[in-house]
Structure formats: structure tokens, C-alpha cells
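Action item from last week, closing it out:
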Amino acid sequence: MKKRDLISVLDMKDDMPELIDLAIKLKSERGRHGAPLEGKTLAMIFEKPSTRTRISFGVAISELGGNPLYISSSELQMGRGETVEDTAKVMSSLVHGIMYRALDYKIMDEVGLHATVPVISGLDNLEHPCQALADMVTVKEKKGKLKGLKFVFLGDGNNVCNSLMYACAILGIDMVVACPAVRMPNAEIMLKASRIADENGCSISANVEPLEACRDADVLYTDTWISMGDTIPREDALRIFRKYQLNSELLSVAKKDCIAMHCLPAHRGEEITAEVIDGPQSVVFDQAENRLHAQKAILYKLLK
């Protein structure tokens, strides 16, 4: 059977609802789902530091009966004399899957092209598909549905925003991107997501006015204003993004049962206030836990 990768959210376009339901099922059966991936080894390559990705993937493969193998980029010859193609081929002969947290999506694509085992993106500078899946698991848990909801992303149109646009378009969720004009998400991804949304009876739109964007929202979501490796000066970021802070004012114009989300790490007082992240409408820590269950579903689907 041909191997499958998960490098973009589009790679799970046809089975995203199934993966969401599987994640919820595996969560409810934690400790009782046996060891379906016994004997499988997942290589985890990190070019960028990680807390949630490293821990959640390591625990996920272990709880499914497999073995995590952590590899930092400094321990690989890739890019230091050995080609990406050679590294991917060698690793494919030794492990059953590769989880790669990359600096450059072009290298991510190249690893996927040459590996003969499934390659899973743990983040690159274009997308973060595993985060988007965990987020949709969280929304379904809290709202009981996905189609027809209004989802607002506030702040920097980064890799997480790109993946969320695809996810919302696939699942029939209306998404509004509330970002400064100079930090809008990837234009090509936004166009592709809009076309998918049209097919599914929803919309992907942008609005530079956050108060207007948040009106009657079911979900308000934000992320750090300065992503890892971003070259924007801190003072400029604070000035550009200030009015996009997820705070009680924006929450007050959303629906009364609106949930507040953040993929972490959070900077209280910057992109989100302590009042919101620690408040009753926050599902941020449920969202973090669901990285584990979403990634279990992915590993089960790709490695089983």
C-alpha cells in the first residue's frame, strides 16, 4: 500500500472528520486501547525547540505501543555533507515513520518526497497541520459540532493561521482572519482555502478591524505575535498587533458561549490577557492536551 504523509492539512482533506472522531475515541479509551503500534518506531527530528510537540508525540507513540526516537538537527548529517534525499532514504530503512519539525517547508517537502515511510509535519514555516487537527478536536468537544460555526483568528497570519484556514474550509466553518494588512496569511493558501470553503458552503475572509471581526463569533483564537525565528523587532510587533489582543472587550462582542483558544506558548499581557486565558471561556489547556489525542489518531491512521 502506498505510504501517506501529513505535511499539509490538505493531506487529510478527505478524512479529517474521521480523524477528529478517532482522536475523541482514543481520548475516551486512554489506557484501554491496547498497543496497536507495537514494534513501530517513530523518528522525531527537531530543527526548532519544542515543548508540546516533543512531549505529545513521544507519549502518543509510547501509549500506542511504539517507540519514540528523538533526534536533534545537530545529530544529523543532513545539510552538512549528506543530501536530504540520502538522509530520508536511510531513515526509511530503519524506522516506521518520521515526524519532522522543520525550519523550511521546502526541506519538509523534500523529505516527504524521498522517504518511503510516512512523514508527519510537526511544524514548518508554512503550516502546522497537527495543531490544526487538535484545535478542531477541541472545538468539536466544546461545541458538539463544527459546520456553521464562526471562527476568528486574531493577530499574525502565520503557519498556524494557514493550517486553520484549510481546516475550517474543509469542515464547513466560517473563518475570519483579523490581522494587520502587513501581516496577512499566505495569499496562495488563503485563495485555495476560499475555493474549498465555497464547495463546502462556508467562507474564509479577512478583516483588519478586530472588534467587527469578533462580533457573534463562536471561537476566538490567537497565537504569539513573534513566532520563533521571526525577524520583526519586538517594539514593532507590539505596536502593529496591539489592537488585536484577545481580551475581555473582544470576547464581549462574541457569542456568550464563545470559547477562547491559544496554541501556546502564550505571552500574557501581549496577544492574550491573563483574564481571558485563565478565565471560564478559555479552553487553552484542553487544546494543549488534545495535541496528544490528535497525534495518536494520526499515528494510528498512518502507521497501522
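Closing note: The mean pLDDT is 96.
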